[in-house]
Amino acid sequence: MTSLLEVSGVSVSFDGFRAINNLSFRIGPAELRAVIGPNGAGKTTFMDIVTGKTRADSGTVRWGEKGLSLTGLSEARIAREGVGRKFQKPTVFEDQSVETNLLMALKNRRGPFAALIWRPKPAEMERMRELAGTIGLSAHLARKAGELSHGQKQWLEIGMLLAQEPKLLLVDEPAAGMTPAEREKTTEILVEAAKTRAVVVVEHDMEFVRRLNCRVTVLHEGSVLAEGSLDHVTSNKDVIDVYLGR
Ligand SMILES: Nc1ncnc2c1ncn2[C@@H]1O[C@H](COP(=O)(O)OP(=O)(O)OP(=O)(O)O)[C@@H](O)[C@H]1O
Q1: Which atom of ligand 1 is nearest to the CA of 41?
Q2: Cβ < 6 Å from ligand 1: which residues?
Q3: How far apart are CA 38 and CA 32, in angstroms?
Q4: How far apart are the C-alpha atoms of 243 and 220, rounded to whole Å?
Q5: Of 3.40.30.10, 3.90.1150.10, 3.40.50.300, 3.30.70.20, which CATH number belongs to 5-244?
Q6: What is each CA distance from 56 to 48, 51, 74, 242, in whole angstroms?
C-alpha cells in the first residue's frame, strides 16, 4: 500500500513526560481511519504533530509520494501541503450565510492577495453548491450560520475544510453533542469525503466508530496498542484492559 502519511518512531515529551512514545502510523491516500483510546492516550498530541503545532523530539513524519519530511515545517506550510484539521468547536462565521461561508473558504484557497479582488465565478458558485449538497445544507444556503443547529454548523465547517481540497482531513470528535440523526449524516459525509482523500477521525463514541466501518487505531500511553477492524481491536485483551473494560 502506498502511504500518504507515514509517521515512524515519533516521540514527544512534555517536561519529561512522554506523551507520544515511539509512535508509528500510516494512512493511504483515500482511506478512512478512526483513532480511539482513553483520555490522555496522545490522540490530540498525535494530530498536533502531524499539523506542525507540536514538534517531535525524535522520529519522522513523511508526506506524499516523495516522502517530504513534515517535521520542521511550519503549520501554514503543512496546511498548504494539504493537511486540514477540524477542531471540536466549529469556527464558522456566524453572521454570514451558509453560502458566504462556503464561498469564503473557496476564496481562501486563492491566497490573501487574490482574495482582495475576488468575485465568485460560475465554476466557484457551482463548487459551492456541490459542497452544500455534500454536507446536506443545500436548502439552507441563505441562512446565517449562527442560526444553524450544532450539527449543521459542524457540517458547514467540514464543507469549508473540503473547499480547501485537503489531501488529509483530521477530525476531532465530530459526533460530540449531536443528535442520532445528525450522527448518521456526519458518518455519511466522512465516508464520502474519504473516497477521495484520507480522513482521520478521533472519536470516543464507539457506536459512531462502528458506523464509520473502517480500520481503527487504538492509542494508549502514546503508542499504538492495536490496529484493525473494530471487532478485531475490541476483542483484543489489552484494549479491553486499558480502555473498554474500565
Ligand atoms: N502542552 C502540554 N504540556 C504538558 N503535558 C501535555 C501537553 N499536551 C498534552 N500533554 C499530556 O500528554 C498526554 C496526552 O495528551 P493528549 O491531549 O494528546 O491525549 P488525548 O488522547 O487527546 O486525550 P483526550 O481523549 O482526553 O482528549 C496527557 O497526559 C496530557 O496531559
Answers
A1: 21
A2: 14, 19, 37, 39-45
A3: 20
A4: 8
A5: 3.40.50.300
A6: 10, 11, 13, 25
The CA radius of gyration of the chain, in Å to the nearest whole number, is 18
For 86-113, the pLDDT digits (tens) are 988 778 999 999 999 999 998 766 555 5
Which residue's alpha carbon is at the smallest distance from atom 10 of ligand 1?
A: 19
- Alpha carbon distance 93, 196 (integer Å): 27
> What ipTM goes with this model?
0.94
Cβ neighbors of 124 (< 8 A, separation 6 or more) are: 103, 106, 107
Pocket-testing residue among 12, 20, 21, 39, ligand 1, by greatest number of atoms within 8 A of Cβ = 39
Ligand 1 atom closest to Cα of residue 46: 18
Name the residue with the closest Cα to ligand 1, atom 25. Answer: 39
- For residue 194, give the nearest of 134, 106, 128 by alpha carbon: 134
What distance in angstroms lies between residue 14's CA and the mean position of ligand 1's atoms?
9
Polymer length of the chain: 246
Q: Taking the domains of the chain in order of start, what are their residue ranges?
A: 5-244
CA angle 40, 170, 18 (to 5 degrees): 30
Q: Is the pTM of this model over 0.80?
A: yes
